[in-house]
Amino acid sequence: MLQSNILADLSPGHCIKDVAVNWHGTKMAVCANNSVIIWSMNSQQRWIKEDVGIELDKLKTVQRISWAHPEFGQVLAVSTLNEISIWEYRSSNGGGQWFNRTTPPISEPRHLVIKDVQFSPSYSGMGRSRALDLAYCTDSGQLKILRCKDARLLKDWETVKEFSQCKDAFTCLAWNVTSTCSMIAVGTSESSAKGTRGEVKLFQFEESKNEWVSGDIVAKTYNSQVHDVAFAPNPVRSFHTLAIAAAELQIIDFKVTDHLKVKLVNQDQNKIDHDQNRVEVWKLSWSSLGTTLCATGDDGLIRLWKNNNKWECTKTIKWNGMAVQLFIFKIIYYEKDSIILLICRLFCLKN
Amino acid sequence: MADKWISDYSNFKWTNSDKNLFIVLNNNTFTLYSIPAQGQNSDLRKQDVELSESCGTLYQRAVFPCDSQHRKIYKNFVVHPSKIGEIVTSCQQKLYLIDIEKGESSDILNLSTDRRQAVKRINLLDWNKRCVDNVALSIDKFRTAKSIHIADINKGTVIQEFGSEGEGVQSMAWSPHHTDTLVAGTSKKRLEIFDMRGKSKDSGRRTNDIQEIDGACFSPKYEHILASHSDEYVKIWDSRFLKSASPVHSIKSPTPDIFKIEWSPTHPTRLSYITKGGKHIQIKDFPANTLEKTEGDQTEFTGVHDQEPQHKQKSAPEMFGSTISNFSWHPKVPNRILCCKKTNDDNGIPVYKLYDIALYEPIIAKFSPCDSLVWGCSGTLAHRSMDTQDISDTMKKRIFDGYGFDPSLNKKIVGPGSLYAFWSFYEGVVSHEKTHEDHDLRFKNGVHSLLDSVTHESRQEQMSARPSPIVYVSAVRSKCQEICRWPHCRPGRFDDGCDGIVKKLITSGEQDKAVAMMLFYRGIDAAITLLQNIINDSPLENNEKRILLLHALSGFNEQWIQNIRGLGKTVRNAYQRAMFTFLSTEPGREDAYREILYDRELLLEDRVGFACRFLSDARLLKFVGSQCSEEVAAGNIRAIVLTGLKYQLRELLQSYLDQTSDVQTVCLALTMAKKHEPAMDAIYDSDPRDFSTIVMENYLRYFDMRCMWIERALFQNDVRKLLKNKAKIEQHLYVICSCYKSISDRPSLMYNTSAKQSRAVNDRAPSSKETHDKRFCPSKYCKSPMLPRCALCMYHLGTTSRFQPSQAVEKRGSSERRQSAVPEETRAVISNPLKEWFVWCLACGHGGHSLHIQEWFAEHKLCPSPGCKCTCSLLDMSLPLDGVAR
Question: Of B180, B262, B269, B254, whose CA–CA distance to B222 is shortest?
């Protein structure tokens, strides 16, 4: 039986907002409050905390972090509520240090909140340019793709494309770059008197026009906004797999046909075992070949999903051995620091 | 009592202990309840903490029946900061101390004794947490009285009065950090902090008029931080800068009428509040760094978060018609909330229920590329390696086992199953490569392609043995049977090899298939004989069913066929079932053997093999065609026998990949297909980007991601060898003397774009056979012929070896290297065969023998070249070159 081991217990008042692991799985960045802590894996497969991390101004809170592909060096994008900064680790005399390379300009930073920021995954051997791209989305319905002009200096970033015509707030984004296509999925949140709903929008790179274009809506969520989206890493499957976290977990497969039209496939095989899918899902992460999905939700459990003609929960992990024999209530989590507890469903989880 | 009174549990408070006790004031009764610790008591199966005497959760109760004469109705109470069960409560003008455990009540104070004043009612109470004698109480707004009184409960007197005369108090709370500090929200829309030591009338610091303050409380951890609420706003203040009237944070609630706020006692940055009629408890985490202040830091808070637009709060969907009437954090257990929910029953009578809620922090979990899991939750970071049996782990294991371009080795590695059959086909392809096959009848073409492309007419023969069905024979069919590993006639020979194959099946444990095969080829009598032999040879316990089968087969005759028809379907074993079906079928019928052909429990190759023997030409072609498209779409990798290295192999591999993500097998299969059927990609790939190239890219990326660089290099060499790729290998680095002459031994590889350089090459190139002293520039006319020295030993580059030869490590061939790739430890032990290579720093241009350089930098940071300040070894540390992710 494999045990979960606790790497660190930060002092109370520190809340881990995001965790990012680099492409090789050798470095991990953890952000809590105004600092980013870096961990690296040693040869015994253990995570060791590094001495130097990133420390922002006291009054800022790091919301999201993202590693660039290691071929660009150790580069992190760190976003606070209304600012993105690019950091690079450079070793120098007497040890290394993180340097703030630049802060790409954000239009109207006072009136929007940056919800998510992600570097594009860069793959070697791609026919396309191997540029360093960064996408971010905001709660005012803005998606912006930036490109680094000079990956050595990381100073200048130009806007490749900006989508800002959307009425709904964006909540999260996910890149999907394969050998044949590039796309970004964005989760939205739309609230009305009836409640909160969400959609997943697809933005695609149209190679013939050499331009990013706004695509279709691939999924909708009810009773909740979209909390997270994640594309399964795609080792040349003929379709793309996208997981959507909302009031419940959704997994869809789709193909992109001519003229960038989206066509859902394998709908029968993407049904999700209902017994385990009754809690709100917050965060998603796929295993390296896109075969296992890890989803965390309201009830303090980490669930691992695998497809066996339908999606089945193959494993649940109680984090930190915390009690599970509890009454699970529904929590609605608002990204900006707050949790709303909604009493609506009661059931006893027997483990 | 329950009939008369509505049990209202909304007035409850935790006692300050970790014993899970709380006190409820209900119908003038104080009751002390205990509930089990969360997650420990598995008996607690009820969905709510039902408060009744029968429930067993009752701990102690004190009943003080309603005294109608004095209208003694308790409205409010406070619990003792440490003693369990001791509370102070008020009724009109009187203050009582009640000990629930003892069931005692005593009067402490009576404000109405002073007859000169009008009747004053006590409204709010708060027990000083640091000085347990003092209880603060507020009284009704009155013209000539101060609203806040501090009572000493031991002496039973009011020791101090605060507030402006005629100014009421709407909320009041002691500071948990100071004995003498009290915060109050006054009716004049001010937040005031009083200090008991001040003794003066208006000793407090106060805000300017802001808004009605409905409640205020100090943070349990940060001494200067306090929260207040008013209507729809929650504001966080720094008590030292109240006058500036700019709160540290300001939150707008989605619904108006906040009526309670509470800091979490265990999570000091967490504040929660509820609104009247609200259905949620709203919980807000403030970043700790905005609440902390370093000492002596006198800059004022600017209220950074005010600049941002208020968060667009959404109304949550209405699920039940219930509202939350009260809540309270457990004083010791993190994230535990007791909350009271009010619903109306069918008659419109409110029903109150208490709920014990566990609140989970959101967990941020991420898969690392090595498929271990890391997650952060609140302040905790955890890690767990997984045994998910994931394909990526399988791929890694296979790589180290030597999974590659040898189908028979691959077969062993994957073990029994459909991949075994897959690699068996490839094994056949490789072995047939050497034999001279008829051009049209190639093994690698696969059944479908063979039948489809070769026009033929099969001979019909009647099988000599019982039950004497008609069999079809042709060269094409024979090839197909060979592909399916079924008995077939070789050209020029009439022995179909059935006995050999049957023997092989028996040794590999497939007795039932062997018997069936015997039946199909040699008739029922031979099958019965074989069955008898099997029964005799194998242990008893496996035999029961076979003996029954033997009995059944022995009775074969016309009548038997009539009896058995239809019953054959009920046999569980697929091969036995096939035998019964076969025996009871009328061979002449159009859909004869249908049950066997479409029986999914039979292996695909067996069904095809059967079809090749017993189906007519037209039916066979139709059957194979339909099976091929069906199995290819389903991604059944066994369909390789149908597709061969032709037609639909790409489709088959694609759908197999869709199902399994096994990019490794697909990559190997495609590369081998390319070798054995070079035309395949050119003909069948319509994509602009070649499928096999994309697969190869992805497989190589897998190596890179897992930092298996050595294995990737070996694999790429194997690919090159397999495909006999003769393309020129690009040279990556060039070392040129200052005379533009390449130092390398192979001047032909010299980078020669500039005219000057090419001239240099052409003029001065010595013949490649000429052995020159490597210490010198190959050019005869070079002015500085000596090449650079090692910065440490000062010998020139190219000086012949002065080191002891290492243990023949340099001589290792690639095949040995492959094995050495398995144990990682041994690799580290191998002494460095590159110790005499010249290495240099790109930044400062100094270098030397790699061994010397390594030894130097083990202890030094600066470049060994005298006077050079370069920190060569620290320059490129960011890459994970040691392959730790393996």
Answer: B269
